Structures are given as C-alpha cells and as structure tokens.
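<given_protein>
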Amino acid sequence: MMDTMTPKSPIKDRIINALWNVDLAQTPVWKRALIQVIRLFYAVIRDLGDGQLTLRAMSLVYTTLLSLVPLLAVSFSVLKGFGVHNQVEPALLNILSFMGDQGVEIAGRIIGFVDNVKVGVLGSLGLALLLYTVISLLQKIETSFNYTWRVKSLRPASQRFSGYLSVVMIGPVLIFTALGLTTTMSSNAVTQELMAIEPFGTTLRVISRLIPYMMIIGAFTFIYIIVPNAKVKIRSALIGGFVSGILWETSGWIFAAFLVSSTKQAAIYSAFASLILFMFWLYLCWLILLIGASIAFYHQHPEHLATPRRNLRLSNRLKEKLTLQVAYLIGTHYYQERPAWTREALSKKLKVPMELVDSITQCLQHKALLTRSKEKPYGFVPTRPLEAIEIDTLLDAVRSDDEGPYLRPDRLAHDMPVENLVKELDKARSDALKGRTVKDLASGTGRHRSSRVD
C-alpha cells in the first residue's frame, strides 16, 4: 500500500529539533536570546508561508483603493480648516517619489479626484456614505491586526466610531504638523549656521537623514499600539515599528531601483502600468505593516514561540489537564482573594498560546462555570462558590464542548457492548471524583495536596 502522506524534509526537521528540542533554562543567556530571535523570525516566515498575512494584505489593497479618495477627501476637509491643506500634494509626492514620473502622475490623479469631491454639497446621505467608507477601511485594518494578535472580537461599536473618527480627524493634523515642523527646522537660519560649524554640521546632517526613519518608525509604533483591540506594550510596539520602518525604507530603495532598471512594464501594460505598480506598492506596504505587527506580537508573547506550529489542536488528555490547571489557578486566586487571572497571565503561567487558554475559558464560560471580572484588566472568576463546582462537572464541560444538536453521542449507532463499556468508564471516573470540588483542588484539602501557586 502506497504511503500518501507528505514526505518530511530532513533539513526542516533538523532546524525544528535545534530550535525547539532544547531546554532554554539550561542554556547561556546569549544563546537563549539568539534562539528566541531565530524562533521569532521563523514564526513570522511560517505565518507568511501559511498565506493569511499575504491574503489580508491583498484584501487591504482592494479596500484601500475603494476608500483612498474618500479618506483623503475627509482628511483634506479637516486640514483645510487648519489651513494646512496645501501640504497634501507635496506629502503624496514625497511618499511616491521613488516611483519617479509615475508617482507624480498617480499623486496628480488622486489630488484631482479629491478636488472633485465637494463634501459641502454631498448632503446628509452622501456624507454618511463617505464616512462609512472611511470607517470600513479602518475596521478592516483593525480586523487584520486583531488576527495577528489572536483577538477574535472588535471593539464595542461606540468605541470604534469615536476611535476611528479621532484617527481620521486628528491623525492628519498631527502628521502634517510634524512634516511642517521638520521642514521649518531644516530651513531655519539658526540651523543653517549650526551646520557650518563642526562637529554640529555632521551631526545635523546625520540627524536629517535619520529623521525619515524616525518618523516612519514612530508612526508604525503608534499604529501598533492603538489599532489592535489588545493592550500592546510600548517596547514590543517599538521593536515591531523599528523592523517594519527599516523594511519600509529599504523596500522603497529596491522598488525605485526596479523601476529604473525595468522599462518593459510600460510597453506590456501600457496605460495600466501606473495602476498596477501602485497596487503592488500598496500590497508591499500593507504586508510590511502586518509583518511588523506580527513581530510585536511574538515579542510581547514569547509563549507562542514555544512550538513550531501556529494552529495547535489539543488532545483529549491535554484538554482535560489544561482545564484542571486553569480551574486550579483561578480557584486558588479566588480562594485566597487575590487578583483574578487574565488570559495573558494564564497563557504565560501555563506556557501555552492564548488560543489554547481561550478554548478552555470560553468553554467554561459557555457552561456558566466561569465569568469575567468587572474590574480592569478583565480576569476570570467562578460563577458560583468553589465548593459548588465539582471536578467531574468541569471535565464533562470540556468533554462535551463543540457537540452540536446534530452530532452527539446519543445520535450514534447503539451497539450494546460499546454502550456498556462507555457507561462503565463514565461510572468509574464519577466514582473516583465523587464529592471532589474546585475548593478541594484550590485549598489542597483533597486526597492529593497541591503546592501553593506563585
């Protein structure tokens, strides 16, 4: 019989063994840091290979093309109120400068479209549709970032609306104000005099060359902090922003070199050449932004680097043990009146990805055994006294998870030998756990005493 399974790559197996079959606690600090960095980049490349990041980048390209003119029209109207609307076209030209004449053509067409949009004469319905188009783009961006951060829910509708409008209204003003200050400082008479004096001249020239990098890194860091529906640490966002900022500037050089060296695309695509290049550039920009978000996530949650796979499936044995561990930790803090465990804290304590913790806590919430605390940051607390939650009930909850109305054990074929064996197994487990509760587990008063939780 032929083996239809996909053959394993010995090189890939060696890499995985070298990176994951090692006890980091027993390795030197420098080697541990190196392994973590390699694991991080392996995880990012793995996510790229899975296709989700590239697929979401392509989706954002399509949404951007639909929303770009409405977004610039709203931003243009806001900037006009502050008297800095004349900087929109120079900013676009600067962003698209690496595309040469095609960048000038694209910027001119975009500004032409924006000029033709008269926000004041759109009426209530037209203005509502304009804002909806802009907000839908921002929501699509948040959804893509939430995927990277393993968050399945968007912000509440009220927070989304106010947050998105703040970005649209305040963001352009801050960006163009920063650009204006940078230009003013570089052309200031005092700055020009200082540049004539060494070593101030060399220092200022170096700083002026670093300013574009610093601005793009700062912008990306800001995006990584505010866009995902998760609490992002500044250090992690800064590392993601640094990597993506370097990639952004480097890709601009490469793209410009490609345009200079390649003259055949205009002959092949004719009038569509500018549009196709613009779409490819948008795709590259979104992909870089998502890669930086992925790096920020893995830096903040190194427990997701503990395995070479992204999508993990729990065996029944692991699911039951993880359920007992979650119940033990939550019950112990509740019993000792300590702060409730959050999903992030549970993930780090148990050294498993948050998706696995979520699968357990969501199941127990669905079975009304757990609920979220009222205080922020939100944690998990029992819905009833610990002595009223039996261990057998916990295990039944996870064993029956994902069973729907159309596929349950009682809908399977009834073979008496199998039915009798299943009943014997269930009875043996129930008898072994009879009377044992989460309070026994948390307080250590059961048959097997446990050590105190750190």
